[in-house]
Amino acid sequence: MGIFTVLCALVLLGAAVPAWSEKHSLYYIYTALSKPVEQPGIYQFTAMGLLDDREIDYYNSENQRKIPRQHWMKEKMQQDYWEKGTQSRKSKEQWFNVNVDILMKRMGHNESDVHVLQWRHGCEVEKQGDEVKFSRGIDEYSYDGDNFLSFDDKESQWVAPVAAAVPTKRKWDNVPILNQYTKGYLEKECVDWLNKFREYGDQELSMYSPPEVDVFAKRCTSDKTKVKLTCFATGFYPKDVTLIIRKYRTPLHEGEVESSGIRPNDDGSFQLKKSTIIQEDEKAEYDCFVNHITLKEPVITKWDGKCKDCTQETFLGMAIGAAIGGLVVLGVGGLVYYLKRRRNRQQNDSDTTRSSSTGSQDRVINYDKHSLYYIYTALSKPVEQPGIYQFTAMGLLDDKEIDYYNSLEQKKIPRQHWMKEKMQEDYWEKGTQSRKSKEQWFNVNVDILIKRMGHNESDLHVLQWRHGCEVEEQGDEVKFSRGIDEYSYDGKNFLSFDDKESQWVAPVDAALPTKRKWDNVPILNQYTKGYLEKECVDWLIKFREYGDQKFSMYSPPKVRVFAKRCTSDKTKVKLTCFATGFYPKDVTLIIRKYRTPLPEDEVESTGVRPNGDETYQLKKSVKIQEDEKAEYDCFVHHRTLKEPVITTWGRQK
């Protein structure tokens, strides 16, 4: 039904610059489950208001209060607005509870299964200058994710795409005054509220932002002569944008182009991606045309010819026991686990800040990166090793352990003194109950997986789950960067959540039944996405605020450059740049030749690693001709430095 996403893309067939009109929307979305779901954060009934795809109010069946989601809504709307809104939402909750039961009986569905009834209604307008014009109204219902009933605003009647909806259509169409009210609400009352809300939130909503445009490609596995050419625009607001892939400056037919549709970013801006398959030797014939209200003229960009590796990073792996090599021991209590990541992920994502240091430019834009992850590990049977438990769970804030649980003590406990001081007793009590529940879930599911994989129960098997979020912080602005929700079995990728697509990805056949089962309950996927992008970020910010004194103890890097002669070629040395003792962990370290950064594939990196004193270190190396040593330097920048440290071999700074 596409009930959550409104796509408003204005597509040009020529290169002319359009006369732009703004598009705005106000929607209300109601979701009712046929029975409670024993999952934290998932309620039997929820309702929310969305202004230009930004949540402005919220209600759930547990708290039973309509509350503001934007500060300006809280400031501008009087108390009686929220009181009346609460009563209205309670009334709708009762209506939904009755009607989801009616639909289940009408559809002949089993009451033991979870079924979902959803309603979306609202309006869209176009604004050109000071003129605001009604564009369209939406009033539609879905059942278990499929279209059920919708209102035809032009004809003032209901449309039933399935036979089970026909009785409702007839009943509602037989009361013309209700259809007249629905039409009047969509075209008039909804538009009035939309205009009022935009006026109240004008300062925040009118912050226009131009698109950033990137063109890249990935080689096709089925035909090595072809590549998948992608044009990606992001960071733009408002959401209306023109993005066209062209050949000889002529737009490709829509049937040749794959589009993601316009999607929201976490900062209130939007993104759009389009792709097409082309012959690699014809790359010069293609370009990407992007236009937006913020641009004086269109952006026209071509592919630079470099093919990107777009495969997903490998998942978190697991190894256990004293007899298994490659172990990393994390935290007091002896949980043993191994996080397996791609080397380029270590070098480029979690290890360094974004750098504008190219050529002779030595200015770096620093972003603080922060993360909150929870890691759960279940063994198929006990291991007679001290400090290794059948089930463990831990929380990691910026890679520092903040809480811990194991199957022997069965108690969630703080690992940082500030967690003990700031978090109330009921937080630890509820956390303990949650961990006990997850322990039971893991014990059941690791047995299910052993049977599904046809593995021997006498052997040791491991099921692991990691979920959480990462953010970027620049000044006072905190932006969601990415969310992770992934499972591994015996150290190999098993199942992961695609946050952008809101669906599960199964890299192995044995995971397909679980993927299908979970994807068939859309409300669970919506909850997962919401947790990663909102609730997790809120907890991350709260924890960093609580531990602020400790986390704000910044420390600058100490930088050394040294070399070791290569045994295979006496004319070469292995030049190493080593930075240590810095906090926070985000750092830029670049080995340069003639002040130009070396390509990443020429450089060996350890990735950022923790020291024993809660500071970090990073080491990068490259093989060079010894007589060319004067051409190389080591460029290091960190938020604690007023200017970058630039050091050459033999001259330490």
Automatic annotation (TrEMBL):
The keyword Signal applies. Residues 1-21 form the signal peptide. Residues 211-301, 557-647 form the Ig-like domain. InterPro entries: Ig-like_dom (IPR007110), Ig-like_dom_sf (IPR036179), Ig-like_fold (IPR013783), Ig/MHC_CS (IPR003006), Ig_C1-set (IPR003597), MHC_class-I_related (IPR050208), MHC_I-like_Ag-recog (IPR011161), MHC_I-like_Ag-recog_sf (IPR037055). The keyword Glycoprotein applies. GO terms for biological process: immune response. Pfam families: C1-set, MHC_I. Belongs to the MHC class I family. This is MHC class I antigen. It comes from Labeo rohita.
